[in-house]
Design a protein that fits this description.
- The chain folds into 4 domains: 162 residues, Ubiquitin-like (UB roll) (Roll); 75 residues, DNA polymerase, domain 1 (Orthogonal Bundle), CATH 1.10.150.120; 109 residues, Uridine Diphospho-n-acetylenolpyruvylglucosamine Reductase, domain 3, CATH 3.30.465.10; 104 residues, CO dehydrogenase flavoprotein, C-terminal domain (Enolase-like, domain 1), CATH 3.30.390.50.
- It has a 5-stranded mixed beta sheet. The protein has a 5-stranded antiparallel beta sheet with strand order 10-11-16-12-13.
- The chain contains 17 helices and 20 strands.
- 33% of the residues lie in helices and 22% in strands.
- Helix 3 packs across helix 4 and helix 9 packs across helix 10.
- Bound molecules: flavin-adenine dinucleotide and FE2/S2 (inorganic) cluster (2 copies).
- The site of flavin-adenine dinucleotide has 30 residues, from strand 8, helix 11, helix 12 and strand 16.
């Protein structure tokens, strides 16, 4: 392993910040960016509404250099641990105005009467700033998606959307654009020669590798340490369950986990790729995955959350899992000892449990392209369309030869303690004609195949009904194809 450092350096707006956790009373390596900002005298714009990624009152924008360019991402600061800012620029609402004029998004909020309550407005402004830096003339769909993670319960979104439309119709220049070359230079300096960071405090050990080799070595040396990547699941253990996370390996900046590769037969996705990057990538390449990512969390969540984290969580309602089952995806697992490949179905072993050996990391997800005749679809049914947890989710794939089913996978989320295939229904359908009568019989089998839970999200009867109806929906959609 290369040498080690223990200081965290990042830019807070235009000021370089260096944190030594041993010398900074009140800060621990898992202090969230939200709590850090709130602890400072002049950064009270950011608010805590929920501390679990749902309300967006804590939205900030993080800028980082990628391929020589500055990339801006709106994120929920309540879910981000301070060391995750290493080498980046944290932009807060206090820095948007240039000292003389309001920023165009702030001015537009004033002009369109978009400013509502003081609790949510700073977060909303930061989401608009994120749109401003990433889009010129964004569509209403883009604006609405970017505001999904900002919850307003008082009035409505129309004036805010109008503000976004009017602000983002300009050339997109602001005082950040004028400073961009300098910001890139400063961030490049900060990131040059960076080495594994090890933070040891009396209560916590925090390791932040930047290379895959260092990450695997950390895993070897600290097999009990909790891995965190986007931390959208992990952070809740601290913010909601009040756990002290004693030993952490933070792989959020491991460059070797952030690749997207298309081969003749498959797609290879680095485990550390954010779901927002994967959403953009899969749009024209992996439509069933795109379909589910479109309604995954919010933009602030997708900018943090990773595909490796969604698989690693093994939640029974992990939204990418059914479609990965249906696609026969494989998981690449690596340790300093070597590499293993597992089918995703074998990797998920139970309720939030996976076949990950001590020392291993998920490094890659491999999605076969399948044959052009194979039909793959994904579905998510939840109480609300946006920013909600699935009541039932599904990933289906079907290959028919001359109208007869030769291969079918019906994978469900929300129907059992883990993502599960409806194997009885699959067996019934295999070798049958793919027609409405047979699908109707299969729906009856499916209706009794699982005994799902009743919980706050949905009752067991409802879940069974949804599952069977999704099968009919799949049949009807597949009828558009010439089978
Ligand atoms: C507001 C909100 C909305 C959400 N909406 C959705 C939703 O719509 N659908 C959905 O499915 N989920 C949702 N989630 C859950 C969460 O965002 C996802 O599970 C996400 O994909 C987790 O990724 P992460 O990188 O943040 O994981 P982390 O929190 O960093 O890690 C999650 C788990 O995976 C393990 N892990 C992470 N990376 C690796 C790796 N490379 N190798 C081995 N283990 C690893 C960690 O140890 C941990 O156990 C939501 C969460 C929040 C807070
Ligand atoms: S405080 Fe609600 S999303 Fe962070
Ligand atoms: S803007 Fe705060 S509740 Fe509506």
């Amino acid at each position: 392993m290369s040498g080690s450092g223990h200081l965290i350096r990042f830019f807070l707006n235009d000021k370089l910040v260096e944190i030594d956790f041993n010398a900074s009373a009140g800060l621990k390596p898992t202090t969230t960016v939200l709590n850090y900002l709130r602890s400072l005298p002049f950064y009270k714009g950011v608010k805590e509404g929920c501390a679990e990624g749902d309300c967006g009152a804590c939205t900030v924008v993080v800028a980082e250099v990628q391929n020589g360019k500055l990339v801006h991402k709106a994120i929920d600061s309540c879910l981000v641990f301070l060391p995750m800012l290493y080498g980046k620029q944290l932009i807060t609402v206090e820095h948007l105005a240039d000292g003389k004029d309001l920023h165009p998004v702030q001015q537009a909020m004033v002009d369109e009467n978009g400013s509502q309550c003081g609790y949510c407005t700073p977060g909303i402004v930061m989401s608009l700033f994120g749109i401003y830096k990433n889009h010129h003339h964004p569509s209403r769909e883009v604006i609405q998606d970017a505001l999904t993670g900002n919850l307003c319960r008082c009035t409505g979104y129309r004036p805010i959307i109008d503000a976004a439309e009017s602000a983002c119709s300009s050339r997109g220049w602001d005082h950040f654009s004028l400073a961009e070359a300098n910001t890139i230079r400063l961030l490049d300096e900060l990131n040059s020669g960076k080495e594994l960071i090890e933070i040891h405090t009396s209560l916590q050990q925090y390791y932040k590798p930047f290379t895959l080799a260092d990450a695997l070595e950390c895993r070897r040396l600290h097999p009990e340490a909790l891995i965190t990547c986007g931390s959208t699941d992990v952070a809740l253990r601290q913010t909601k369950k009040k756990e002290l996370l004693r030993e952490i390996i933070d792989i959020s900046d491991v460059a070797g986990l952030k690749f997207l590769e298309e081969n003749i037969d498959d797609f290879r996705i680095g485990a550390g790729v954010s779901l927002e990057n994967l959403l953009q990538y899969s749009k024209d390449r992996i439509p069933a995955l795109y379909n589910i990512l479109k309604i995954f969390g919010s933009l602030q969540i997708r900018n943090l959350a990773t595909i490796g984290g969604n698989i690693g969580s093994a939640s029974p309602i992990g939204d990418t899992l059914p479609v990965l089952f249906a696609s026969r995806a494989r998981v690449r697992l690596q340790s300093t000892e070597g590499v293993r490949f597992l089918n995703i179905e074998d990797f998920i072993t139970g309720y939030r449990s996976v076949d990950l050996k001590p020392g291993e990391l998920i490094t890659e997800i491999i999605i076969p392209k399948g044959s052009p005749e194979q039909i793959i679809r994904s579905y998510k049914v939840s109480r609300r369309k946006d920013l909600d947890i699935s009541s039932v989710s599904a990933g289906f794939s079907m290959l028919a030869v001359n109208g007869t089913v030769s291969e079918i996978i019906l994978a469900f989320g929300g129907m059992a303690a883990q993502t599960i295939r409806a194997t009885k229904t699959e067996t019934f359908l295999t070798g049958k004609e793919w027609n409405q009568a047979q699908v109707g019989k299969a729906m009856d089998i499916l209706h009794h195949e699982f005994t799902p839970l009743s919980d706050a999200r949905a009752g067991a009867d409802y879940r069974n009904l949804v599952a069977r109806n999704l099968l009919m929906k799949f049949y009807l959609e597949s009828s558009d194809h010439n089978i």
